[in-house]
Structure formats: structure tokens, C-alpha cells
């Protein structure tokens, strides 16, 4: 059916009504102000979120670069210092206790926050920690871990949910437990902070794993001291540093007296006991910047940086006296062991090389053996003439008899 045509006047009146409708505001003035405020607030929040994302990305990138650097550093102190500084950028740290776990599942080292020379807190080895040497509680470990894959685990405390002030973080390399980090904060730890901490644990775990592998590669298993190969590499490095900065450098060589007799009369098990104990004595006597090694068999050496011959002789004699007073026991039999030592100082010698420095220390050691054992000698220019003439130009360190058997 056809639609009847509308009058022209009616069409014009309808068009005018529509135009007047468009001119009437849909919302009152306060509504438009509210919309504008919401738009501005949304833009500000978006800008802030993107700024925080950029800051987080930059911090994670810096931490990743630091992680690559840490992979080249075998020293736990350097690794943990970097990790602690990074953790302080994430949360206000109040606790930073790290326990390194050996392959047998025991706590081999405990580190905790201690004030340094300038008063600032930093992770430091805690030899008196009550957990040192203790076995890891397997049941407690399961409570703190979550399975990621069939052969990898992660800390349960980093899962979503909750705002704790303390995180207990087992550090795994695959399914091998390397360490346990106990991290505390004065503020609640939110999801964003957890994400950053999770990103930090990656390079920290890799660095601790590399440190363990490095230590296995350069450590003599029986004595716990550095291997000969690593000692010679460090000696070359310190020699180059000594050439550049003209700092003193000293080597001391040690040889256990009549060690073959111990093995022949008491057995090789007794000899192993002596080597382990002597390695412990040497480690306790030298500084962290020095290096003690087992050269092979019953021969040992120490590399003492920024140390004069007189100071090195004092250290060597302290080692000698400690061993002399140590009582050993095997199968109900007590016995004592002594050691002879030779010291050579390269501080004023510019023509020799690191190998010759070892030769001179060994010559001084030979002179100590020839002079009656259980003493320390220092290499001098007259020592070679002394060997030829049999005249002693330098008094030996006096030897004390071992304590009487009680």
C-alpha cells in the first residue's frame, strides 16, 4: 500500500525538532566534569604503570647483566654481596641468611648479615651458626618447595597469593639443592616484588652452581686446599700484579717431616688424617687474600700477597708450631708430626720469575731439612754459599719438643 505524501510544512517542523534535540546536552555539566576527571586519572595510571614497567625492565636487565658477571666470579662473598644489594632494591631487607648445601645434603657454609668496616651490612661467613654441619630436613624442604617439571623445583613462597614479610627460598639447579635463602623484609612483599625476587634467584642460583663447580675443579679433595695447577695460575697473576704495582710477594713451601715413616708404620689412613688436619691448620693461618695449596704428596705451599719475608716467616712458624702441638690418634695410638718450611720473598728481586721464586723457597726448605727439621728458613743470597760450605748464616727458628705423652 502506498504511503500518502506528507505535507512540506510537516517535514520542516520535524527536521527542526531533530536539530533542537542535538543541541540539548546528553549529560549535565557535572557529568562531563566527572568523565574528564576519569579520563585524566586513567591516563595518569596508565602512564604510571608503563613507567613502573620500564623501571622494572631496566632493573631486570641490569640484574641479568650482573648475573653474567657473577657467573665469572667464584667467590661466594662477591656473589652474595651482589645478590644482597639487588634484594635491597626490591624490598627493605631485614634478614638475608644463606646456607650453602654440599652434595651430601649438609650445610657446609652459613652466611648472615654483619656490619662491615664502614658499618654497612653485608653477607659474611658465620662459622658459629648453629645449622653449620647439620643435615637438611627433607620433610621441611618438601614443604617449602613446589614441583615445576619432573626434575626441577622452585620455592613455594613465591607463588601468587599473600603478602608475607619473610620468604624461605630453597635454591635448586634442576633437582639438586644448592642453597637455602631466608629473606626478610620490613614491608609486606607483594606480587610485583615476588616477580623481581624470582628473577633475582635465577642468576644467584647459576652463580652458586658455578662457584661449586669451580671449587671442585681447583681444590685438592684430601686436604681441602687449592690444587697445584690453580696455585701456579694464581702465582702468575700475582707476579704480574707485583710487577705493575711493585708490591711485596712471598711464597712459603712446607714439607711434612718423615711422612713416609708415618705411612709405613701407622698406615696410609694415618697419613690421610695428618694431611686433612694440616690442610685445616694452613687454611686457618692465612688470610682470605692469600692462597694455601697442596703441591703433592706431603708437600704444601702458601702464596702471601703484600707480605714481606719477615711477616711470611711469622705465618709459617705459626703453622709449624700449631702442627707440632697437635696430637694425632689412630687405633688407640697417639703420635705427633712436625713440618719444615722455607720462605722466599720477591719484593726486591726484579730479575727472577715466579718459577725461580718457588725454587728459592724450596732451597730454603731444603736448608731447614738439613738443619734438623721442624724449623723455618728464609732464602738469602748467602744460602747457596751456606749449602756449599756447611756454614749456617741464618739462625733457624727454634724447634720445641712435642708435649710428653700423658
Topology:
Elements (H helix, E strand, L loop, with lengths): L7 H16 L5 H43 L4 H15 L2 E9 L5 E9 L5 E5 L12 H6 L1 E5 L2 E4 L10 E8 L2 E10 L5 H28 L9 H18 L3 E8 L2 H8 L1 H18 L5 E6 L2 E7 L3 H16 L3 E3 L2 E3 L3 E7 L8 H17 L5 E3 L2 H9 L17
Parallel strand pairs: 13-14
Antiparallel strand pairs: 1-2, 1-7, 2-3, 4-5, 6-7, 8-10, 8-13, 9-10, 11-12
Helix pairs in contact: 2-5, 3-5, 7-8, 8-9
Question: How would you describe this protein?
Answer:
The chain starts with 7 loop residues before the first helix and ends in a 17-residue tail after the last helix. It is elongated and about 110 Å long. Helices cover 48% and strands 21% of the residues. Helix 3 (76-90) packs antiparallel against helix 5, helix 7 crosses helix 8 and helix 8 (268-285) crosses helix 9. It has 406 residues and is α+β, with helices and mostly antiparallel strands. The strands form 4 sheets. A 5-stranded antiparallel β-sheet has the order 3-2-1-7-6. Strands 9-10-8-13-14 form a 5-stranded mixed β-sheet, with helices on both faces. A two-stranded antiparallel ribbon has the order 4-5. Residues 20-24, 391-396 and 398-406 have low confidence and may be disordered. The relative contact order is 0.07. It contains 11 helices and 14 strands. The protein folds into 2 domains: 59-218, Beta-Lactamase, CATH 3.30.450; 228-389, Alpha-Beta Plaits, CATH 3.30.70.
